């Protein structure tokens, strides 16, 4: 399909609030309820609650794992809606959440956490169909689980105009999060895309669009500002049309970055004397009562506002009468101004103190950098233009991937190169480097915004591969990265950051076609940018067997990240799905599959353990087949959670005396040299190993001769054991080695774990794109 047409079709529109008259298609009235966060702030309990959760997380992850916390922090919700399920209809009050994609409600067998909630009794519905499939949604801590069923779901209360959607699959919960127990909502109605849905269940609204039940494939969100009154009218979701009663003319449309969340680009934030200009990935989310963003930026905005951070409340406090003007957000060519009435929140402390409605979080390169929650959505109606054509294109693309067979198998040889991280550790520079970046982040966010740091921390990669582009072929050494989806290499107009790297000269290729579209990839700090072109991209070196893929769109960089400048790699070849690609560019491998160039729509990754030798053979990527030379028999396949990253569920981790059993979203990622996971769990594993944390370089040190057995990862019904040779790394510091693990917090977006090279060296990873699953096989090498 044509990427340009997709960009024109998927939009989120922002319109000014106004009081005009018109008719709606189906309008879903909301109930406003003050968030539990605001209630706890007023009672002076929020700080203790935050500290309690942090203490559990840091000190005892096994206990913390049993204290569920919902995705999107559903204690932070403010707007609820009525639905009915079944025939005759059974009523429920649910969170209308644009940040998730599944519908679930409690079932009759749900226990103590469901006490007081309405429960769906399928035995009383004449239209219910069971599919006998178990269902689990994993939250940051805790989960909801039960079984799936199919019935008629109707948007709206039975006493109002409804939108009935027959044959809708939803979850019937037998257990829900403990944090959810005290909330008014009975369940959650996700309104995002199918690609974000657990078990690939088609969301109710997408199902309605597919069945042609709406006039237009869109919905409008209007949230009413209700102060602190609870259980009153809170706004309207209008399905199938623009809400011209409560919303004015459309100001502008903004293309979505991907059809997962309602995610798009904002390029600047300003309040008073503080401003920052930088491209950020942001989402519009009705399930979040505040605005979330990078802490360094929020600190700057809060300082300009005169707000003071209060650790007891975990929030920025300020006098209720504060008025320093609007909080301005630049999206596309327009500035959207949020007035103080929407970002200064009176939670009823009684002493004239209010809360600045923001909260900090770090996305660690996964998901959005900002959450534009209710303060933004109250100021501007949000039109979620899903687009009927777009949905058809998505389905066509998936069918194409599932129905291919043809031509070739290619083995792509790798080159091992020690990561910059390990080199800097050996030279004693890593700690100073980390401190330098943190100092810039904490002390001067405006400066820090100009210090590039690559997505996936490309200073952390170890395996490179050769490709050629054009006719005659021009060679490049690139990162083969299963954690991203774009290909780019330097172009002839690249600035000083490209000095010493090979560049692609389009004038020397007879098969090159200019796209002319500007192209930019935003990293955690810094970016790569240039323009798009199309040419033949061949996997492998010109001296080897190659896999040529004609008419492949890629980025020609005029600027790349400064951190990338000193590295051997000349570009990045992303091998993930199109839904993850910037500008919806079809990745080279997906393009090869779509053209029928491969025997099977799969590829196998085998990484060789090479110690610390550089620029030697590092393994093989086999495109189109299983690698039976370097890999044993498939142990098992695991279904992907979503076709974005190669993401799936792992249910346990164990090393020595430490173990934790809990469902985590994990990804297999060749672009990461260590294993990443939750801080508390990594600390527990390290303690069992006898490794000592060094805060100066944020790493765990241990004697190289340490042998405490295997690091065991449970995936499906199998345990995958990583031997010490793969998780203990000798960085050249004598008898001292590094535990190849690092801590990060995903803040509810993206995976909780990154299974990097230590896991992939131990087990071949089979990426089955056609059936959207991962296979694992033992690596046939003596060192493992």
Automatic annotation (TrEMBL):
Catalytic residues, chain numbering: 481, 669
Main location: secreted
Subcellular location: Secreted
Alphabetized CDD domains for the sequence: pepsin_like
All copies of domain Peptidase A1, residue ranges: 79-394, 463-777
Transmembrane segments: 395-416
GO biological process assignments: proteolysis
Coiled coil regions in record: none
Signal peptide: 1-23
Cysteines paired by S-S bonds: 494-498
Protein name stated in the entry: Peptidase A1 domain-containing protein
Organism: Caenorhabditis remanei (Caenorhabditis vulgaris)
